[in-house]
Amino acid sequence: MISTSKVQLRGLYKIFGATPVAMMQHVRAGVGKSQLLASHKHVLGLQDINIDMPAGKTTVVMGLSGSGKSTLIRHLNRLIEPTAGEILIDGKDVMGLSQTDLRELRQKRMSMVFQKFALFPHRTVLQNAALALQAQGVDQDARESEARQWLARVGLEGYESRYPAQLSGGMQQRVGIARALTSNSDIMLMDEAFSALDPMIRTDMQNLLLELQEELHKTIIFITHDLDEALKLADHLVILKDGGVVQQGEPQSILLNPAAPYIEDFVSDINRARVLRVRSVMNETPPELGFEADVSAEDTLETLITLSGGDASKIFRVLDKGKPVGTLAMLDLVKALVPRMPAAAARTSADVLSKTFSG
């Protein structure tokens, strides 16, 4: 099923400086980020951003430091005002909202999970989780009842009376997620939400988010600088560089078909076997006979490598929801493990396969 767009950005620009509107003529004439700073003392934060963020899906915006990803997410609830462009939510431009309507948007339709947790140290876990509903004017019994449900859902039942300082970093971020869910908003903004966590805790939080999203189908806009995290979480992936979109689309497609040298360099060190799915590299003609076993279209290539026992001659039938949809031969799988773009292809096939089988 194709999702409709919940959030749309159209021709979005952000220029920081004394006269940003006057600088638009230079940017539209082709002046880039470094030249604008050197010649005009203005910073180009975002440049002609056009993105459709699907409803009920996770859009991940990623890039290196200074790429504009955090600037972008803060435009969605107008914590930062754009220099030019449109920000549409359900087809309505938020730039035309009154202060009352904008306040309602921030309180009821959008929630935000921060990198640094942003919990009130003098409030209990329960009080922190119920904060969004308190701001909406919901009475204490009702908001605390709702908060208790979401705290239990994220694994914090029994911690309601604790204070943030009594929790680990991962537990504090669970409170932040519970607070966002308690608000009952249909859009969740997550700005580097897991970046401050240790690797194992970060993995746990990613898995929790995937589990919750499978159930709730929120529209999530997730900011990260980590490609592994982006590929794991994204339904729609947007990669930024110097304030502009370099490539966007379905993550598997970007990994297999990088559109620019910048993207090929980004994906060259990824363990493709752990990320690529069977559906992305299969032949869409199911076999009648002569296949080794059935596998799921959502299995990773790493799963098939294990099933094959290292035998490159084997062929598998691919199922989607129990229905045959294709074939994957191990020889085609091996080809998919080698990046096709020139810069990345400088790494030899042996290097890539060694990394794949060694983990």
Describe what this molecule looks like in 3D.
It contains 18 helices and 13 strands. Strands 6-7-8-3-9-10 form a six-stranded mixed beta sheet, sandwiched between helices. Strands 2-1-4-5 form a four-stranded antiparallel beta sheet, sandwiched between helices. The protein is an alpha/beta fold. α7 packs across α8. The chain has helices at residues 20-28, 33-40, 69-76, 99-109, 125-129, 131-135, 140-153, 169-182, 199-216, 227-233, 251-256, 261-267, 272-275, 278-281, 301-308, 330-336, 342-345, 349-358, and strands spanning 5-16, 43-54, 58-62, 84-89, 92-93, 110-113, 187-191, 219-224, 236-241, 244-249, 294-296, 315-320, 323-329. 36% of the residues are buried. 42% of the residues lie in helices and 22% in strands. It has two domains: 5-249, Rossmann fold; 272-358, CBS domain Like (Alpha-Beta Complex). The longest helix has 18 residues, at 199-216. β12 (315-320) and β13 (323-329) form a beta hairpin. The model is unreliable at 343-350 (pLDDT under 50). It is globular and about 65 Å long.
Set down the secondary structure blueprint.
Layout (H helix, E strand, L loop, with lengths): L4 E12 L3 H9 L4 H8 L2 E12 L3 E5 L6 H8 L7 E6 L2 E2 L5 H11 E4 L11 H5 L1 H5 L4 H14 L15 H14 L4 E5 L7 H18 L2 E6 L2 H7 L2 E6 L2 E6 L1 H6 L4 H7 L4 H4 L2 H4 L12 E3 L4 H8 L6 E6 L2 E7 H7 L5 H4 L3 H10 L1
Parallel strand pairs: 3-8, 3-9, 6-7, 7-8, 11-12
Antiparallel strand pairs: 1-2, 1-4, 4-5, 9-10, 12-13
